[in-house]
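Hello,

Our lab assistant flagged a job as stuck in the queue for most of the afternoon. It eventually completed. Since we weren't sure the result was trustworthy after the delay, we are filing this so someone can double-check. Below is the sequence as submitted and the structure that was eventually returned. Let us know if re-running is recommended.
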Amino acid sequence: MTATINHLLEIKDFGQSIWMDNLSRDIIASGELKQMTQDQGIRGITSNPAIFEKAIAGNATYDADIEAGIKAGKSVLEIYESLTFDDIRNACDIFKPIYDQTQGLDGYVSIEVPPNIANDTAATIEQARRYYQEIGRANVMIKIPGTAAGLPAVEAVIAEGINVNVTLLFSVQSYIDTAWAYIRGLEARVAKGEDISKISSVASFFLSRIDSKIDDWIDDKLKTLASAQSDVATQLTQVKGKVAIANAKIAYQDYKKIIQSDRWKALSAKGANPQRLLWASTSTKNPDYSDVMYVDELVGPDTVNTLPPNTIEACADHCDVQNRIEEGLDAAHQLIHSLASPEININLDAVMAELLEEGIDKFVQPFESLLQSLEEKVKRLATV
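-- returned structure --
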């Protein structure tokens, strides 16, 4: 009988780390998370307000701690933070051996600052600093959105020695801006004579949301075309499901240029760790596409891919793992260039800006919803 191959475990050989995009107290307490680090090669984990909403809302596992928070006179927000910070600390402890074994390359647990301050630099710095100090784990990574207000915060907290996961990056330019914010933060720390060898950062570059947005636009446009416009229809159809991967491959080329720059080499000589590109939003939304296409097409050195549980299972079963991150670069550039043609006429910059605004909203809404459901639970438990 032939042993079943877990294709997920092959990815590490190509220099890519797999992190999981999911966190709950259930998988921590049951031992499932620790088991996944051993069986599935999971080397880090990310969280966000949407993930915590799913984990906490309607889950009796948290009730005892909520009741303790009520007795201690904590506000709803303070109770939320006590629940999430405990989960983050416990997850950090599970991943600490990986953090130690990889000398700080992997083993990180990400937690996002409140999403409703995404456009407030000072508040983001203050909350990132507070989260890092209160959680008190070397392998915690604070998530800050890559907004115009977020990037100065990234620079400031990197200079303070705080690990940062820059999230909600869609355009190649937003990644480039993020990379230089990281570099400026390290340079500021060097100027103060402080160590930079223990600081780590990832740039979370989103994928499936791009294809979903553009595919929907293309489908709407296809409905308006006359039968004589079959050539235009063909060009539009050829773009579907391909923009996100092409965009990511181009971003990776910019990563390679940046780490060859003199400024980066000077930091590297002082022990700086590269800010790796992390592929986010990797679950395929369209059932017509491969459910592992955002894994198979973007395996390559010095990258991270963060996968939700269903994609982890799918990849373990049928990923076709090869180093493809630099394949088809000419085609990727041609595809992105073609979007501006009169026939297709997609303003990619406008799409990316819209996705960033929607992305913030997709975190604000579950954050507010979770606080509301927590408030209702607090009222209910307070009367018991």
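-- support follow-up --
The delay was a queue issue, not a problem with the job. The result is valid. The beta strands are 16-21, 42-46, 108-112, 140-145, 164-169, 201-206, 276-280, 303-307. The chain has one domain: 7-209+242-325+353-382.
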